[in-house]
Design goal:
By secondary structure, the chain is mainly beta. The protein has 1 helix and 43 strands. It is elongated. The model has no long low-confidence stretch (mean pLDDT 87).
Length: 628
């Protein structure tokens, strides 16, 4: 400006220029963009202060109902602080900030987005771009009191008060400060092939790492649940196989027990010297064992070869089968360990065991097998019923081989005017033994009487002699029974049924009905008991026949007697042509084994007596089984 130029106006112009400088450096203006979708141009007024774009801070106001475009001048390099303070009249319109022309970059407030942004206009001649500098209250810039999300930010030694929250605002970590702390926790990541690390670090040389659960909770590391209290001195930690750890006494060898001379039940972690000088001894293994349980045993007196030690499984397998084993070698010893429910107890250590640490148990057993007795006849057929077949046997049993027992039923009535009925068969069978079948007793006749274990007596069917039924049918050796007696008419006297020892008596004029054949005595149960007697024969006019000893039924007085249950006795013939015949007695099967070898594994609920002269006696009155 030359000397004297603008005299009287230069002060006003100078003030105007200073106002422009103030506007561009920190001026504030509000611009309404209220209304529907539209474009609002922010301009610069040359030489005046009225241009909105000449201000640093621009507040956009008004209620908008459509998307807005706000333009800034081109060819100007500058930055602006834009405050979108509009309200949404309807919908969620956007506000776009761009250059007045060209295709440069733009910045858009999204739907419902409000607040401050610092924008920069790059002044490119034809395509001025508008850029967001990243400092924005809407984009989550960090403030002292705000809640923002930090992404890819580095915090150097931040101070965190008492907690760190998760994305839902719930407590994730609680932090407790310790005054004058010098030790801390360090978390380190790791390269490929290496493990991350959580460690104690700090000013001390040796620092523990403490992890404390709440209440009665446990510390769980990689699925392993640790005890929440200390054990006693010298205990060790064991697992239950399901991830729970606990303290237990350390294995220091099996605890030796006093010498055993009688049968006993073993306890895990114990060692038993056994003296079999006086006879076989049984050791029953522990019930409900756990994997790793051990039991030890040794021949104390060098007598296992004379009297074996029998090992009873007590419901768990031994070498894969629930069957007894034995030690039968002099000075033999073995340690058994329970492995699992499939193999059970396995020998893991032994001395003097020969070819096998555990030998299969074999022992001698006595059998008495008596079938059901036949029933007597009625009306014109009044012969006595034959006794059930009577057989005994001594055989060798092997542990694990089941003996199946069938007990024959006593015969029922034959019906009015009919001969008697044959009784049911009794039998023992199984792997490794000979099957013993005793045939049911024959029913009373009739002419002839029925065949069976013992034959039924013949009846006074027609004038002359009526033949008794044949005994020992089918044939066995020794014989399982005898023939029934003959009947005669007149005087109408029937023969008695055959018995285990002898044939049934004949009917006769002076004596009347024939006596039943005698049974056979056995002491298998510890005392002498006679079984297998034939039923007495009936008579029309004279005395009635008596039943044979051993359960045979008597023919008189009315009604005739049934054969005794569980003896195989034959039922008596009817005491006259209008009397009631006797029914056959049921059979029985008796097994006797040495006490020390008895396994206790039975079905069918037999009566079991132990200590019968060193034997265990099982009396089956119904079908069942015994597994050695």
């Amino acid at each position: 400006m030359a000397t004297g130029e603008n005299a009287g106006t230069w002060g006003t112009k100078t003030n105007a220029n200073l106002n422009l400088v103030e506007q561009i450096s920190g001026g504030y203006v509000e611009q309404s963009i209220a209304g529907g979708a539209q474009t609002t141009d922010l301009l610069v007024a040359d030489g005046a202060t009225t241009g909105v774009a000449q201000n640093r801070i621009i507040k956009l106001t008004g209620s908008i109902t459509g998307n807005q475009i706000v333009t800034l001048p081109v060819n100007i390099k500058n930055f602006y602080i834009i405050n979108n303070a509009t309200t949404d009249g309807s919908g969620t319109p956007t506000v776009q900030i761009k250059a007045a022309s060209g295709s440069g970059a733009t910045v858009t407030y999204g739907a419902s987005e409000k607040g401050f942004k610092i924008l920069y206009a790059d002044g490119v001649t034809t395509n001025t771009g508008i850029f967001d500098t990243g400092f924005s209250t809407t984009d989550g810039d960090v403030t002292l009191t705000g809640t923002q999300t930090l992404t890819n930010k580095t915090l150097t030694s931040p101070k965190i008060q008492t907690s760190i929250l998760d994305t839902n605002g719930n407590e994730l970590f609680l932090l407790t400060a310790t005054g004058s702390a010098i030790n801390e926790l360090t978390v380190a990541n790791a390269a490929a092939g290496n493990a991350p690390e959580v460690s104690s670090t700090g000013g001390d040389t040796n620092i523990d790492l403490k992890i404390t659960p709440k209440g009665s909770g446990n510390v769980v590391l990689d699925g392993l649940k640790y005890p929440n209290a200390d054990g006693t001195a010298d205990q060790v930690i064991k697992t239950d196989g399901s991830g729970t750890l606990s303290f237990t006494d350390a294995f220091t060898g099996l605890a030796q027990q006093a010498v055993k001379t009688t049968s006993f039940t073993a306890v895990a972690a114990q060692f038993f010297p056994v003296n079999t000088t006086s006879g076989t001894v049984s050791m029953t293994l522990p019930s409900s064992p756990s994997a790793g349980d051990q039991v030890g045993v040794v021949d104390y007196a060098g007598t296992f070869d004379s009297n074996a030690l029998v090992i009873l499984p007590n419901g768990s397998p031994i070498q894969g089968a629930v069957a007894s084993k034995k030690l039968d070698t002099e000075r033999e010893g073995v340690v058994l360990q329970y492995v699992d429910g499939t193999q059970g107890w396995l020998p893991v250590n032994g001395i003097n065991e020969g070819t096998e640490a555990l030998e299969p148990v074999t022992y001698s057993a006595d059998f008495l097998v008596i079938a059901g007795g036949g029933s007597g006849a009625n009306f014109n057929f009044v012969g006595g019923g034959g006794a059930g077949g009577y057989r005994s046997s001594t055989q060798t049993l092997t542990a694990g081989n089941t003996v199946t027992v069938t007990v024959g039923a006593g015969a029922g009535p034959g019906g009015n005017g009919q001969p008697g009925v044959t009784g049911g068969n009794s039998e023992i069978s199984g792997t490794g033994i000979t099957t013993i079948t005793s045939a049911g007793g024959g029913g009373g006749g009739g002419n002839p009487g029925e065949d069976g274990g013992s034959g039924g007596g013949g009846g006074p069917y027609s004038p002359g002699t009526s033949v008794g039924g044949s005994g020992n049918v089918p044939s066995t050796s020794p014989s399982q029974g005898n023939d029934g007696g003959q009947g005669f008419l007149p005087p109408g006297a029937a023969g008695g049924g055959g018995g285990a020892t002898n044939a049934g008596g004949q009917g006769s004029a002076p004596a009347g009905g024939g006596q039943g054949g005698q049974g056979t005595a056995s002491s298998i149960t510890g005392s002498s008991v006679t079984r297998g007697g034939g039923g007495g024969g009936g008579s029309f006019v004279v005395a009635q026949g008596e039943g044979g000893a051993g359960g045979g039924g008597d023919a008189g007085p009315r009604p005739a007697s049934n054969g005794q249950a569980n003896t195989g006795g034959g039922g008596a013939g009817a005491p006259s042509s209008f009397g009631q015949e006797g029914l056959g007695g049921s059979g029985v099967v008796i097994i006797s084994v040495p006490d020390g070898f008895y396994s206790g594994t039975t079905t069918g609920s037999p009566t079991v007596a132990t200590g019968v002269s060193g034997k265990t006696v099982m009396t089956f009155t119904g079908s069942g089984s015994y597994t050695p």
